[in-house]
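Researcher: We're teaching a course module on how sequence relates to structure. For the next exercise, students receive a sequence and then see the predicted structure as tokens, so they can try to spot secondary structure elements on their own. Here is the exercise chain.
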Amino acid sequence: MNGGDGTAATTHESDALLSRLRVIEDQPLDARAEAYAHVHEQLQAELEGGDTHR
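Model: And here is the predicted structure for the students to work with:
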């Protein structure tokens, strides 16, 4: 149970990100750079997507 505060979803998302970063770390340097750039773009889009004006 998460008590309705989104804690379980946040934990799942954090675990998924950590797992993804571990996979990236096992890649050659040039592939890692590209993968980290992609992760950055996705996180930036998600964070900026929350900036909606009401």
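Model: If you want an answer key for the exercise: Helices lie at 7-25, 29-49. The longest helix spans residues 29-49.
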